[in-house]
Amino acid sequence: MAALDVKEREIPESPLVLVNTWSKFAVKKVDRDTRFRWYHTNIFTRWLPSTNQTVILAFDFDPPLKERFLGAVMKPNEGWLNDPFWVYPHLVEQIALAQEPSVWAIRDHVRLAETEVKPEGRPQPDYRRLHDIARHAIHVNETLDVALQNLEHILMQHESYINSKDNVSPASEDIHLRLQSWQSFIINLRSRSISNEKRLQNEIQLAFNTVAQHDASVTLEIGRATQLDSATMKTIAFVTLTFLPPTFICAIFSMSFFDFGGDSGWTMSNKFWIYWVFAIPTTIFTTLVWTYWPDIRSMLFSKNEQT
């Protein structure tokens, strides 16, 4: 995401020393509609101390960074040209100004999720959108982290350059202060970006817990309804068992095996045993089928699958 390399090279057969620097930054621009774009900057500079000339090679610059950076370095402060790091305040400024809209765009998305009106009934969070915002927030944090690391390296190299000089020019001090100022600015952006990510994770967790709470309440209502149905079934079973013996007795005495009319009074047929011959085996068969029906069903299904 970012890198910095500083080298001093001596010109053969000359007391002059060239200062070469190379740096690379990356910025993820996030819009308010969650669209994004990556911006890359590659800068190579060669500073000639004899003439205070600086050769700048810029690669992979995309608008609008390209126009703003070129506009700054084409009209430099002439007092800064005697410092090999004079390009970097302008570069870091453009990086910081490109990072700031992304941080606030993430903040706007997070705020929208926080203030979103919850619908009636079961919540329907847009987890895909929340995931995309979280991914952008992680990338923005990453670019800010590496930008700070790169800026710390620039400050360290610039301080080393200043300490190597007997007399520190006001321009070098001004450049160093400007770099420190933008370092503080990026640190503040980083703090805001960390806050955005934490708030977003809080919203994702809240959405998950809200759905889980709603599902738990629905499950509780289903459990209560099942409990009421169970109580009703118990009542029905109790009533059934209460009337079952009298019903059985009525069914027995209502059969044609019994005769309550005529002058002979109450008589019973000598063929009553036929009822028990059919009733007892049928009851036993029904009980056995009900007991072993799961095994019978599994055997039938296994045969069908084999065929």
Automatic annotation (TrEMBL):
GO terms for cellular component: membrane. The keyword Cell wall biogenesis/degradation does not apply. One of its GO terms (molecular function) is metal ion transmembrane transporter activity. It is a multi-pass membrane protein. InterPro entries: CorA_TM1_TM2 (IPR045863), MgTranspt_CorA/ZnTranspt_ZntB (IPR002523). Its main location: membrane. Keywords: Membrane, Transmembrane, Transmembrane helix. The chain crosses the membrane at residues 236-258, 273-293. It is found in: Membrane. It comes from the Eukaryota. This is Uncharacterized protein. It comes from Penicillium vulpinum.
